[in-house]
Amino acid sequence: MHPDAEELLARFESGDSVLVSIVGRQKSNESEDGGIFTSLRAESFTEVGIDDYKSWMVDTADATLRRLEAYDSSQGEELSEESMRKAGVPEDLVDGLIKSKEHYAEFDTEAYRVWILKALSRALGNSEEDLDTDLEPVGIETAPVEQIEVQSTGGGDPRDVILGILGSNGGELVEYEDLVGACISAGTSREDAENAVMSLKDDTMEISEPKFGFFSISG
Prior knowledge:
Structural class: alpha+beta
Shape: globular
Radius of gyration: 20 Å
Number of helices: 9
Helix content: 40-55%
């Protein structure tokens, strides 16, 4: 897979727009305190056409909006199947919604609706300038990018860079791309940076992903 991936990356870095479908293997690990850490390692990919991409985007947006509507309907209700049904939550979403509300903190559905509109706008080739890009899910506190850049200049080992950032930012969550970017700024390749993040999360469990795409020191 690596030669094909490198060729694709070279095209992307030269300015080509590339759409791919990726198939991977799911991996889960359980920490000593009972936390479950899940990752997906890519095993194969194929290029897809713009029409397929648009079709998948519309299907995904529709399904996501349906879940957001169910979440809004469930606000203030007891976490029971009967309460969810009375609130109008679709039958196929009841069980998953209860489990997710038990596990995750409250969040701002409007932020996700904006991101869906942005994704659809991009798929259609329209401008996103009129959309609000500053919305973030409620409950996620992230370290300032400027702070990450300063802290990442001390060494080149991506594992040290990542642990240094997460260990000295006061417990705030840091976005995946900020961690990878800091490693690249410190002199490593993107591939090594991404592998370091996954290794620290899945293998040594020194870092965790409390929110999708946001990382912190484990424990």
